[in-house]
């Protein structure tokens, strides 16, 4: 299957807008579960306000949050797909720029030193474009995640040592959630990376934070850690918007990688309650949009 870069450009543009305006179904279902289980009266009121905000934003075709975030594109290329790699990345960047200009989106991207804003949601190294491959034949999948600063500012890495054991990982995650407090606009998805190198570990935490609710770590020990940490985090009492309650996080997600015998990195990256994402799958039949 040969993919026209113009298809990619149009999809990249459409995905940015969709991600900012429509919340994925799994997150809405997550809100439903938290509303049903929350015991604190103030927290119940905060959750109700969040749910109303989502409903009003979607019904009026407005943004779910004013923060358009750092635009992140994850691309998975299936077997038999033909596309020039440079053309692919250029097309995604053009689509990102078009979304910002054509839909009057606030560009949240600036130069890190001069703080100059080009008003394109692009800049050096941005949007980050991650490319992977799959066994799926004749399809190219693009996922778009707008990552807001409220969640991204709450990112941590610790190069733990093996002698500290699993307890060090759990304590680090709990401490990070407490330090974040209400700054991440909870309820959150807490992404945890364990293992790898320092950069891989942070990447794993980001992948975990942006996974759909209801998914589980493929590794049995990682999945067990997810369950234990999810319970521990929601016992902290941080609550929605940091105002107290049971609903500190939708879930804790864990992703793991093998690591060196003398180290055990652990990273945390959080996603706010407006856990936005959108996807497009390009096949010979056309483009199908989803989450």
Describe this structure in words.
- Keywords: 4Fe-4S, Iron, Iron-sulfur, Lyase, Metal-binding.
- It is an enzyme of class 4 (lyase).
- Its EC number is 4.2.1.32.
- One of its GO terms (molecular function) is metal ion binding.
- The chain has helices spanning 5-21, 25-37, 41-59, 85-102, 149-152, 165-180, 198-209, 220-233; strands at 70-79, 129-137, 140-147, 155-160, 188-195, 249-257, 264-271, 278-283, 286-290.
- The chain is α+β, with helices and mostly antiparallel strands.
- The chain folds into two domains: 5-20 and 64-148 and 275-290, 2-Layer Sandwich (60s Ribosomal Protein L30, Chain: A), CATH 3.30.1330; 149-271, no CATH class.
- Helix 2 (25-37) packs antiparallel against helix 3 (41-59).
Through-space gap between termini: 23 Å
Query: Which structural class is indicated by helix and strand composition?
Result: alpha+beta
Beta-strand percent range: 15-25%
Quickly count the domains.
2
User: How large, in whole angstroms, is the Cα Rg?
Assistant: 19 Å
Count of discrete alpha- or pi-helical segments spanning 4 or more residues:
8
Task: Note poorly predicted spans.
Answer: none
EC number: 4.2.1.32
Keywords: 4Fe-4S, Iron, Iron-sulfur, Lyase, Metal-binding
InterPro entries: Class-I_Fumarase/Tartrate_DH, Fe-S_hydro-lyase_TtdA-typ_cat
GO molecular function, one term: metal ion binding
